[in-house]
Design brief:
285 residues; mainly beta; 8-stranded parallel beta sheet
Length: 285
Amino acid sequence: MKRNFITVVLIALVVLLTLPSTIFAADTLTVFASDVRTLDQIISSDTNSTGAQKHVYKLVSLDTTYIFSASITAKSDLTVVRQLGPGANGTGRPPCIQPNVLGDGSIPAKLFIITGNNTVGIFQNLYLMGLSINGSPTPGTLGIAIIVSSDNVKLHVDNCVFEEWRAFAIGYNGQHDNFFITNSKFRNTVDPTQQYEGEVLRNTTGTAVTDTIIMKNNTIFAVNCYSAAPVTKVYESYFEFSHNSVVYSFKNPFFIFNVTNGKINNNIFYNAWAGGVSRTEYPWW
């Protein structure tokens, strides 16, 4: 009897291991921009009894933009991916998300907010636009595409475009968060009233402990400052910035004095400190 039981268990394990991994993954929800609901209404309402997201969200519309009227807040794993338009080797244009104009004329300032500890955020092949549908920008000190506001989060961003986010493309204030940012474009993140906003990646508190930042194969064009700013009074575990192009930063491209183990290799920096330093900033920078 014991031998038969062991045999059954082994057979069951073999069957489980040979099943496609997608069976165990979250179901995919295809989202069309033609839906009468805004993107925040669709994703924010798609949760189970614990508040966790039910699906992976696949955006497929390329003929018009997806609109958000409020922040999309997730306290569980969140995956938003794309279907690229026509193009060789999958290089077609991605679906675009941009702010709505609200009834009082205001514009929602923040797009995605991750609030769940020990969660994973995945964003791939998306165009995240900070300009609203009437061409107005998000508020200068508030416009942020992705915010990580919880601890031990792993954020993966691949082949995305971030444009016109006046504060930060990605901001975070959680403890021991990890960032893997690859093959993406960050451009025109400029606040004309504040030279030290308009950043790619920013630790917004100055006190949060950063675990890992890896940025590879990105293009960073026409930003006010910092391509990476994990700066705190606490050391960062690992920092890597490789094979990126940084063109036309107004202020210095890094704020990384807390990095203890890292590398900056094979990058192109062109006019990466166009604004120089003022007398009041000397000798700090």
